[in-house]
Amino acid sequence: LGAGPLAGRRLLVTSGPTHEPIDPVRYIANRSSGAQGSALARALVALGAEVVFVTGPAEVPPPEGVELVKVQTAQQMLAAVEAALPVDAAIFAAAVADWRMASASDRKLKKSKDGLPVLEFAENPDILKQVSHMGKDRPALVVGFAAETDDVLENATAKRLRKGCDWIIANDVSPATGIMGGAENAVTLISEAGAESWPRMGKDAVAAMLAERIAAALGALQSQ
Ligand code: C5P
Asked: Domain named DNA/pantothenate metabolism flavoprotein C-terminal: which ranges (predicted)?
């Protein structure tokens, strides 16, 4: 067994975007580099955790030392998450597409003089919400992210309750912040105890701080 405060713990991290195919050459997706999720997984490994890293097609390379599960779509991500359970804690850093095509075309859609294609959407599963509401397999600590462009605190606080997770890591991704795709992040940790804003720092430093907090929370839960 390794050393560190998370030795012997199994944790799950989702990261990156999902890609929802429209046809074989096109997809819809959210903007996500996967940087914060990768950094977090690395920080958890550094504390001795066994980490299952479920990632969509991210821009950054996956972390080393994890059990890597690569997926494309939200439905695949949900299946991979369910297969990874049980875990002690689950952190949902992925930017999952809210919608997929009601039925993706298996042939490339062609331009036509008959007009524009009409795309019909279907709702994707909310993985965070589903795991938060699980019965016996619910991880002891479930952490979600909230990328907001306005009323960050208010929206993220409401999101914590709506999703049923323990913590929300809220960040302001309005374009002026340069956070999206950048090296830094400024987050607020929202828990039942309230909101705690951390100073702006590198995504690696946010990851290290969050990993420490997760280790402390799991330690406290165990000694209850
Ligand atoms: O509702 P919203 O997308 O803003 O919620 C963000 C949080 O929920 C993130 O932690 C994200 O990983 C998670 N999520 C999810 N499955 C979805 C949508 C979001 O796990 N379909």
From this structure: 6-216
